[in-house]
Amino acid sequence: MHPSQILDCQQDLYERLRYDSAFYAYIRESWVGDKVQSPHGKISMADQRHLMDAMVDRVKLASAFRVTPDMCAMIDHASRQLPDDEKMDHTLAPDHTGFVRFDDPLPLMDPHGRLQKVSWILWGGVMKASDQKPGLLIWAFNDTVTHPDDVHEALIDEINKNLQERSRPTLTLQDTLSVLGRWGWVGAQLMEDEVTVGTTMSKVDVEDTGDFPDMSVVFGKEYTNFKRYMHAFFLMINQTITQVEDAKIDRSTRRRVVKMGIPDRVSVIQLRRLEHRPNEGETLVEWSHRWAVRGHWRMQRKGPNLSEVERIWIAPFIKGPEDKPLVITDKVYDLRR
Asked: Residue 214 has what DSSP assignment?
């Protein structure tokens, strides 16, 4: 997706949340509505409005980023190499508030066994009660225009069923989908500092029932732990193999988003050109892709007297022709299905 289109989408999401009551209600019910009758107590209407207002503000203020397909593949790979006891740190994020487009969606499996594709992420800093850690609140969306997923297909089936059950439906399927636009709700999650990222797959337990109200169906089921993706993404931005550059935005787009109060820049996050080490005879083979060799995380000491420690990504080299796509061969889910 072109960077100018990302700003168009950011403006679209903001305007839908700010001015479209039907879309606002859809997000509210998808997110905070599930928690109204949660075991943790009823969330007041005032608190619900506060949460939604915070989301709208974050969309407007967020710095925009585009993650290229090569980088998406590396983030997916790197997230699964993280140790389970790795601790989250909101200061790793490139900005206090961000809006990200993943050109190759990050794959999630939900507790119902459905594949979700995360194309958009919104994050914002949050401070809870005074005795709790700071962190980030993460909102995730599927792009139903470019990468519709299993959940979007199930939603269409549900809408069609409801319309068929009404003797005189007032809306069509197209009417309903036009309200939702390209924004397929995936979920929201709080990432608190000093909390471990956990395992690659998590199980639905009592603490998760606010997000999954039908406990008879999903209790004990596994779903993808999205916190690992986000922590790996924030770590990778600061690695030497990553290149971050401001994209060129056309003048009309700049004027339009500035008028709305939205930042007029998009940072493109991609893999830096890495060393290619051909094996003997490799030039005789027409390779169809590139691949990473021995990528892994390592704790590295730095600072005065080596007193500080940071996690760095070790990717000795990338093999294959420079003009071919990067393929990570140990992907858990195949997005082509």
From this structure: -
Closest CA to 15 of 61, 48, 59, 54: 59
Rounded Cα gap, residues 95 and 118, in angstroms: 20
- Amino acid 208 reads D
Asked if residue 297 lies in contact with residue 313, where contact means CB atoms within 8 angstroms, the answer is yes
CA neighbor of 66 nearest in space, from 201, 214, 232, 233:
233
State the Cα angle at 39 between 38 and 42, rounded to 5°: 50
pLDDT digits (tens, 9 = 90+) for 73-132: 889 888 988 999 999 999 999 999 999 999 999 999 998 899 999 999 999 987 655 566
If you count them, how many residues does the chain have?
337
**Joined tokens for residue 291:** 């691949």
> For the segment 246-257, what is each residue's pLDDT rounded down to a tens digit?
999 999 999 999
- The contacts of residue 116 (CB under 8 Å, 6+ apart) are 107, 108, 109, 110, 142, 149, 150, 151, 186
How open is the CA angle 147-212-40, to the nearest 5 degrees?
Answer: 135
Nearest to 272 by CA among 1, 6, 3, 74: 74
Element (H, E) at 259: helix 251-260
Q: Which amino acid is at 328?
A: I
Q: What are 322's two structure tokens?
A: 């420079």
pTM: 0.82
- Tell me the C-alpha distance between 51 and 30, whole Å: 13
The pLDDT score that the predictor gives to residue 164 is 76
b/e for 65-75, b at 16 or more Cβ within 10 A?
bbbbebbbbbb
| pLDDT per residue as tens digits for the range 258-273 | 999 999 999 999 987 6
Q: How far apart are CA 276 and CA 274, in angstroms?
A: 6
Closest CA to 72 of 242, 200, 299: 242
